[in-house]
Each structure stands twice: as C-alpha cells, then as structure tokens.
C-alpha cells in the first residue's frame, strides 16, 4: 500500500494487530497516529495518508466526512472493507460497504478511485486520490 514511505499516517478504526504492524514498519521521523471514528474530532493535524477500516455502513458517512478534513491536499485515502462471500467478518451483506458505495461517497469531494490491494483473506483496501482536473 506504499504507506511505509508516507511522512504522516492516520489510522482510523484499524484493528490493534494491524496498527502495530504499520507502526513497526515505519521508522523515525515518520509518524503514525491511531484513533477511532468516534475520537477523530480530537485529531487536529493533517496527514499525507489516511487508512480507514470499515466493514459496515453504520455511521460511515460521518466518519468519512471527519477523515477527509484531516487529509492533506494531494494525500491518499485508503478504505479497508470486508470482501463478499467470506467466513471471516460477520457483517451481513446488506450492511457491508462496497466499492460502488465508496466511489459515490467520495465523488463529490473530488476523490477518484485509484486502485485496490488485498489486505487479508477477508479484506481489501481501496485507494482514493484527488482527481486531476
């Protein structure tokens, strides 16, 4: 996901084990801050990249709105979602976030879908960046 080279990384709702992997993979002076979607209001800094872990739709819009305010212009937003037809996450299909939901959600903010990366057997990360005008 090329996040080891980013100077300032914000992790939102990322499982503790995964957050720890990011922290140890990134060396000084790069900074990594982890928070929850509920506590993101306390974060005032801007970040070069933000990684949001969302397996369900519940309150996703409000979390995404807050996250976008913390993203540097030209930064990358990664959203990790649960894959379809899996045994791992217990997210019912009707509540699962899908790529089409994310594309629609970020279009109005000028972000375009760039690529995806498989994160685990049950999860995929989608990258969004500012659209070239």
Structure description:
- Strand 5 and strand 6 (123-130) form a beta hairpin.
- The protein has three helices and six strands.
- It is globular.
- It has helices at residues 16-25, 60-68, 99-107, and strands spanning 8-12, 31-35, 47-53, 71-82, 111-118, 123-130.
- 21% of the residues lie in helices and 34% in strands.
- The longest helix is centred in the first third of the chain and has 10 residues, at 16-25.
- The protein has a six-stranded mixed β-sheet, with helices on both faces.
- It is of the alpha/beta class.
- It starts with 7 loop residues before the first strand and ends with a strand.
- It has a single domain (8-130), classed as 3-Layer(aba) Sandwich (Rossmann fold).
Produce a short descriptive summary.
The protein is α/β, with parallel strands linked by helices and 133 residues long. It has helices at 16-25, 60-68, 99-107; strands at residues 8-12, 31-35, 47-53, 71-82, 111-118, 123-130. A hairpin with a 4-residue loop joins strand 5 and strand 6.
Please state the average pLDDT score: 86
The backbone outline, from C-alpha atoms, is: globular
Please state the structural category: alpha/beta
Question: Mind telling me the CATH class?
Answer: Alpha Beta
β-strand percent reads 25-35%
CATH superfamily, by name, is Vaccinia Virus protein VP39
Distance between the termini: 24 Å
Query: Do you know the CATH topology?
Result: Rossmann fold
**Quaternary structure type:** single chain
Spatially, the strands of the biggest sheet line up as 2-1-3-4-6-5
Q: Give me the count of strands.
A: 6
**Helix count, DSSP H or I runs of 4 or more residues:** 3
Tally of structural domains: 1
User: What can be said about the biggest beta sheet?
Assistant: 6 strands, mixed
Runs with pLDDT <50, length 5+?
none
Helix/strand order: EHEEHEHEE
Instruction: Work out the helicity level.
Output: 10-25%
Rg (CA only)? 14 Å
In the CATH hierarchy, what is the architecture at level 2? 3-Layer(aba) Sandwich
């Amino acid at each position: 996901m090329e996040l080891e080279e980013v100077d300032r990384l914000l992790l939102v709702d990322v499982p503790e084990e995964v957050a720890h992997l990011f922290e140890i993979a990134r060396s000084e002076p790069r900074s990594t801050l982890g928070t929850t979607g509920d506590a993101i209001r306390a974060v005032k800094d801007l970040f070069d990249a933000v990684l949001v872990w969302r397996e369900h739709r519940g309150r996703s819009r409000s979390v995404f709105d807050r996250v976008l305010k913390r993203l540097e212009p030209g930064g990358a937003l990664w959203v990790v979602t649960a894959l379809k037809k899996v045994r791992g996450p217990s997210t019912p299909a009707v509540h699962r976030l899908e790529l089409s939901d994310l594309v629609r959600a970020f279009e109005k903010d000028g972000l375009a879908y760039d690529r995806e990366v498989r994160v685990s057997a049950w999860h995929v990360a989608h990258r969004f960046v500012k659209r070239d005008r």
